[in-house]
Amino acid sequence: MADRTRKVSYQRSRWALLSAFVGTAMTLPGQDLTDTAAKLTQADAVTMESSLEEAPDDLQNRKVLATYYGIRGDKSKRLEHALWLAENHPEAVGGCVYCKVTFQDSPLDSVESFERARPIWLRHAELRTSESNVLMNAAGFIVQFDPNLAERLLLQGRELEPKNRRWAEALADIYGKGIFTDGRFRPQTPPSPSRQAFARRARLVLEKSTDPVIVGLAGLRLAPQDVSILRTRSAENVSLGEQLLHRARDLAPKDPQWEIYIRDFEAARRDLGRPNPEAPTGDEAPGTLVRRVEPEYPETARRSGIEGIVQLRILIGSNGRVIIVRPVDGPLELQAAAALAVKQWIYKPFLMNGNPVEMSKEVEIRLP
Fold it and tell me: What is the reported pTM?
């Protein structure tokens, strides 16, 4: 018994060290969740499960466990935690890929679990209308079967937080995705007149919108910067996406991100006839930056004495190439130059279950 006690104590201490390494905030960013879960052993998971019996509302432990089981392909345990979070802490589901339930039978999801989650999220959407995070997460689930209700929830959330950009981003996502999927959103979903009607209405909303974020990011959905994804879009949708990107630039001419997106889309279109570049090989750890290009300091910024740090959010493809670059913060005069340089960076691909996957992260770059 003493040996078992010492073993449990050691495992608890080891988990405490891992928690300290990434911080103890209730909600870890998605990449931190994945990094933390990847460090766990089976004994760590057993210890964390035991701790949840004593403290079931320890959301950090629960989200790390859901991610741990997701990475290892344990569907039943992953869904157990995902459904518990949906029922008891719907505000905490966002930002955790493996804490969500989708409408499909797959190695990590089941239609049965989706149907169990459906009334839970509908109840939250009806009763917790003043909680912005609940509205956002409910919309993310409900869009799979009722995009019109999902849109209403996002509009409610924007009324609660009119200055928060995330609502415009989410609306752009369902409008853009609604158009190119004809309102189905997931391949497993059969077409229907109501879904097709949503896709048509999404086009009308975008035609009338004067919000550059909604217009431009929906355009980016339709005219993406990733060549492999661009190949899957119809010529009609790509044309509409390009028009929306240009209109976003006209609506916000001082915001450099639209010029960046247009430039990268045009580069992707030129690359359509070329084979996809191979992923870099070598002994570096997954996620290692293997090619870094420094930005050119814009002459106009030099003359004006403008310098500083530009923060960018990037999407890294499964081949290690940077697919999308989105400015987040920093002097406007420096953002385009920083984005142009970072778009040329190459990473050793991130891995999940031994397979290369896309990954998003934020980077900072100083000019000069």
Answer: 0.78
Query: Could you check whether the bond before residue 368 is cis, i.e. omega within 30 degrees of 0?
Result: yes
Which domains are delineated in the chain?
Answer: 280-368 (3.30.2420.10)
- In this structure, how many other beta carbons lie within 10 angstroms of the beta carbon of residue 282? 8
Q: What's the length of the chain?
A: 368
42 Cβ partners below 8 Å, 6+ apart? none
- The whole-angstrom separation of Cα 333 and Cα 228 is 31
Query: Hey, what are 368's tokens?
Result: 């000069």
Q: Which amino acid is at 116?
A: R
pLDDT digits (tens, 9 = 90+) for 291-315: 999 999 999 888 888 888 898 988 8
Residue showing tokens 């518990």: 84
Per-residue model confidence as pLDDT tens digits over 19-67:
433 333 334 455 577 778 888 999 999 999 999 999 999 999 999 999 9
Q: How far apart are the first and last CA of the chain?
A: 62
pLDDT for residue 355? 80
Q: Return the structure tokens found at 60.
A: 């950090």
Which among 86, 84, 79 is positioned nearest to 112, based on CA atoms?
A: 79
Residue 207's φ and ψ, nearest 5 degrees, are -65, -30
Q: Do 280 and 290 touch, CB atoms closer than 8 A? A: yes
| Contacts made by residues 189-195, CB under 8 angstroms, sequence distance 24+ | 189/103, 189/144, 189/145, 194/148, 195/147
The contacts of residue 178 (CB under 8 Å, 6+ apart) are 147, 185, 198, 199, 202
Rounded to the nearest 5°, which phi and psi values hold at 287?
90, -5
> What SS3 string covers 278-339?
CCCCCCCCCCCEEECCCCCCCHHHHHHCCCEEEEEEEEECCCCEEEEEEEEECCHHHHHHHH
- Which of 116, 53, 43, 46 lies closest to 79 in space, CA to CA? 116
